[in-house]
Write a structure and sequence with these properties.
mainly alpha; 83% helix; binds fe (ii) ion
């Protein structure tokens, strides 16, 4: 998920779409488990979903910050503000995910976490579209 693929629009967009489709589907499954009050399975599904966000989306973001974003800032200094904004999106994903993990380990209400999983999807969707628009057509 790093290196040349991130610098190539179609490959990078495919990475976004695949990862988004997976977490979106997993979030739907999770909601169904809670609706059906299958609480033990729901908790397992949450752990897997959180891990998926970390392994596929947060790690993608970190590799962008270490590679692609640095390269773009060097080649196009006037893109520095855009890079800052896109990095802020990544930070929001990290903050929301950390809040979800706190809530889960404190055994708080699932309802609030379900809203936060939706927030992750919304932030990530807009972030990916902006990234494709601003950076990958340079
Ligand atoms: Fe990104
Ligand atoms: Fe990306």
């Amino acid at each position: 998920m790093s290196g040349p693929a991130l610098r190539q629009l179609d490959a990078h967009r495919s990475i976004h779409e695949a990862a988004y489709g997976q977490v979106k589907d997993m979030t739907e499954v999770l909601k169904r488990l809670y609706r059906e009050e299958r609480l033990e399975e729901a908790k397992q599904a949450e752990l897997i979903l959180i891990e998926h966000w970390r392994d596929h989306i947060i790690s993608h973001a970190t590799s962008e910050e270490e590679g692609l974003y640095q390269d773009i800032k060097q080649a196009y200094p006037d893109m520095a503000d855009t890079i800052t904004q896109l990095t802020r999106d990544h930070d929001l994903l990290r903050k929301i995910l950390a809040r979800i993990e706190e809530s889960l380990s404190a055994d708080q209400q699932a309802e609030e976490r379900l809203m936060m999983y939706d927030s992750l999807l919304v932030v990530n969707w807009h972030h990916s579209r902006d990234e494709e628009h601003y950076l990958l057509n340079l």
